[in-house]
Amino acid sequence: MTYNTKIRGPDLDAAWAVLEGAVVIIGPEDTVTFPAGSMWPGLRALPAALVERLAPHDTERLAGTHVVPWHATPREAEFAAALIQVQLMRSVRQSTTGRLDVLRHVAPLATDNRETIAAALGMSRTTLRQAQHLLGPARPT
Hints:
The protein has 141 residues and is an alpha+beta fold. The protein has a domain of 67 residues. It is built from 5 helices and 7 strands; from the N terminus they run βββββαββαααα. A 4-stranded antiparallel sheet has the order 1-6-3-4. α2 runs antiparallel to α3. The mean pLDDT is 88.
């Protein structure tokens, strides 16, 4: 196997768009991937709770990735936050509680079907059933 060196990615504080390839944003416990067509608005433009959960500290690029500076609109910052949220709530590196917390930022979940919640989190209904106490009292599904 050939060893290829890491390709440093763009600055987390700056806003940028990925035109080709993908940028991996690295946190201590999880990573998220921004593929071509997505944009990063800079750390200050993202919700503080989301930045705290991911705690990004570095970026790397896949070979052939092309990134350009960007001026993110508030709506683009919302889209970037949504991209991060969906990756974190489906990440097996996040605890079930952590995944539920991310999903709760999207919807209250009080009246949602447990199977739908499990599907949104990328886990089996059985796994979610084992953690039902995290959702509170059982409701009809």
